[in-house]
Amino acid sequence: MESKRTQAGRSAATRAGLVAAARPLFAEHGYAGVGTDQIARAAGVSRGALYHQFADKEDLFLAVFEQVEAELVARLGAGLAAADPNDPVAMMHADIDGWLAACAEPEVHRIVLIEAPAALGWERWREVGRRYGVGLVEMAVQSLMDAGAIAPQPVRPLAHVLVGALEEAALYAARAENREAATAEVRAALVRVFDGLLTSSR
Question: For residue 83, is pLDDT > 80?
Fold first, then answer.
């Protein structure tokens, strides 16, 4: 039993090491610009060890992408938790600003917005993004409904609509020639959309 636990621990460490080695390479060179030999050397393991942990390069990239997404959701969740729940406008704006600021960071911008759709395909990329993001937005929407800031309505479909708006805004800014100006434009648009959800009593 101890041997199995030790082996499982070594396997987990190898997997984590490969993800850690691949992440900066994908961020700097892109998915197509990085080979599995290069990743294995950076991780200090053999190419065979890489393929023991991951089916192929795409599978490894998926693990990197999901790690970045999980960290992003944790950051945005912390920002929402820190906002005043009695100020729904501040909560919404904090979520918008946190998302757009994160997407402007080189690593998030390259891995999440540029490389992931190309490497994984549009549908798979959207599925992963929504799997991580919808839960966070559902939590925010439910909190605002509980506070009476948004009229009661089905939470999940509204969360999907809002996640779609956030993702498309980030994609628009990421592909613009002037990303700073485009970010300001989509922020203004998102603020109008989110503020429009507030009940008239606010």
Answer: no
Burial class (CB in 10 A: 0-12, 13-18, 19+), 48: exposed
Q: Is the per-residue pLDDT at 202 higher than 70? A: no
pLDDT, residue 51, reads: 96
Listed as own residue / partner, the contacts of 17-21 with beta carbons closer than 8 Å and 24 or more positions apart are 17/43, 17/44, 17/45, 18/43, 18/45, 18/49, 18/50, 18/53, 18/54, 18/60, 19/60, 19/63, 19/64, 19/67
Maximum distance among all alpha carbons in the chain?
A: 64
Amino acid letter, 63 = A
Measured between alpha carbons, how far is 58 from 31 in angstroms, rounded to an integer?
9
pLDDT higher than threshold 90 for residue 94 = no
**Percent of the chain that is helix, strand, coil (3-state, to 5):** 80, 0, 20
The DSSP code for 163 is H
Residue with tokens 């990329």: 125
Residue type, 164: G
Residue 72, judged by CB atoms within 10 A of its CB (0-12, 13-18, 19+), counts as buried
CA gyration radius, the chain: 20
The pLDDT tens digits for 24-54 are 999 999 999 999 999 999 999 999 999 999 9
What average pLDDT does range 158-187 have in this prediction?
92
